[in-house]
Amino acid sequence: MSHNEQVTTYYLEMTAPDQLCGKPKPEGLDVTEAELKEFRFNRYLYQLVGEPWQWTDKLTLSDTEWQSYAERDELRTWVAYHRGAIAGYYELEHQTGGDVEIAYFGLAPKFVGMGFGGYLLTHALQSAWGWGDTRRVWVHTCTQDHPGALNNYRARGMNVYRTEQE
User: Fold this and answer.
1) How far is residue 128's CA from residue 137's CA, in Å, rounded to a whole number?
2) What is the pLDDT, as a whole number, of residue 3?
3) Could you say which architecture CATH assigns to the domain 8-21+28-165?
4) How far apart (Å, rounded) are the C-alpha atoms in residues 44 and 55?
């Protein structure tokens, strides 16, 4: 990315579960919660999925910092598998006031463009609404992310409530 290129960050939200426009489950894609928390797994998923999009904010964290991030009760992780390979993942973070953030979401490089993103996001939103007293689900994405990300969030029923220019 050139230095003069502006980055736009989009914040999206869903305020009721009936706003979800779900996508059906593709054949051979299974999504499982990693119920036994292991920070090394979260770090691996972060690197696997984030590398093409320059996710760097957590690369410098120590093991201790990763552990306190990933092994909290407020964070849950789901992994999508296709034929035994990791196709993608998402993390949900339960925040105060009934907010759930889709903290990280994405597909592994080999699985981008196969039509898995719509279902994985549907799954993430359903999981978020099913977690306790959820009143709002939100996420942010930016113009450095996959070009289809914003459209996927919108297509599932999320609405942009704020944009920021960097």
Assistant:
1) 7
2) 55
3) 3-Layer(aba) Sandwich (3.40)
4) 12
pLDDT per position as a tens digit, 113-142:
999 999 999 999 999 999 999 999 999 999
pLDDT at 92 over 80: yes
Whole-number pLDDT of residue 145: 87
Question: Is the predicted pLDDT of residue 147 greater than 60, yes or no?
Answer: yes
Rounded CA gap, 124 and 127, in Å? 5
HEC-encoded secondary structure of the chain: CCCCCCCEEEEEEECCHHHCCCCCCCCCEEEEECCCCCHHHHHHHHHHHHHHHCCCCCCCCCHHHHHHHHCCCCEEEEEEEECCEEEEEEEEEECHHHEEEEEEEEECHHHCCCCCHHHHHHHHHHHHHCCCCCCEEEEEEECCCCCCHHHHHHHCCCEEEEEEEC
* Domain edges within the chain: 8-21+28-165
- Per-residue pLDDT averaged across 150-161, rounded? 97
Enter the tokens of residue 28. 């051979």
